[in-house]
Design a protein that fits this description.
Blueprint (H helix, E strand, L loop, with lengths): L5 H23 E4 L8 H19 L6 H11 L3 E4 L2
Length: 85
């Protein structure tokens, strides 16, 4: 059975779109946590990214909105997204 190249191409575009959205959000918002030092952000962010990716793999839903899963994980860890003024 021959597969089309559309699925990898779609994933590539989704990845680029996610990167673009992340860069735009980085300019106008930042994650803050009143109970953790800023240095703890990198560890929590990496854990949440890995959990969101694993959720997509284990569920079989590769179109799972990983950005929303990531945000929910970060909020569960006490981080809030604050707009920059």
């Amino acid at each position: 059975m021959r597969r089309s190249g559309k699925a990898p191409q779609r994933r590539r575009w989704r990845g680029l779109l996610a990167l673009l959205v992340s860069l735009l959000l980085a300019r106008c918002a930042s994650w803050t946590n009143p109970t953790k030092p800023p240095s703890a952000f990198a560890d929590d962010a990496a854990t949440c990214r890995a959990e969101a990716a694993q959720a997509a793999v284990s569920s079989g839903q590769f179109d799972l909105d990983q950005d929303n899963a990531y945000a929910a994980c970060m909020r569960a860890k006490g981080w809030t997204l604050q707009e920059r003024h």
